[in-house]
Amino acid sequence: MALRKREQEIAFQLAKQVSEMYLADKDDRKPWLFPQTLAITKLRKGHCRPYATPIRWEP
């Protein structure tokens, strides 16, 4: 249950950042776009897979 809550929090925060950075104008925050942005964020997260081990980069 806690993991599910955490996933929802991450999706919400990511959707908020996308809305603020890419959709909002200076004079209009366009809050009506947030539900669609959240839905897209959740769909996209479903296509990403976590790495089993950390990726190491060595120059």
How many structural domains can be distinguished in the coordinates?
Answer: 1
Q: Could you tell me the radius of gyration in angstroms? A: 15 Å
Distance between the termini: 40 Å
Compressed to H and E, one letter per element, the order equals: HH
Average of per-residue pLDDT values:
81
Percent of residues in helices comes to 55-70%
Cα shape: extended
Number of separate strands: 0
Hey, roughly how much beta strand do the residues contain? under 5%
What class, by secondary structure content?
mainly alpha
Total of helices: 2
Largest sheet composition: none
Uncertain ranges: none
What does this structure look like?
This protein is mostly helical. It has one domain. 61% of the residues lie in helices and 0% in strands. The chain has two helices and no strands. The chain has helices at residues 2-23, 34-47. It starts with a helix and ends in a 12-residue tail after the last helix.
Question: In brief, what are we looking at here?
Answer:
The protein is mainly α. It is built from 2 helices and no strands. It has one domain.
What structural keywords apply?
59 residues; mainly alpha; 2 helices; 0% strand
SSE topology:
Elements: H1 2-23, H2 34-47
Helix pairs in contact: 1-2
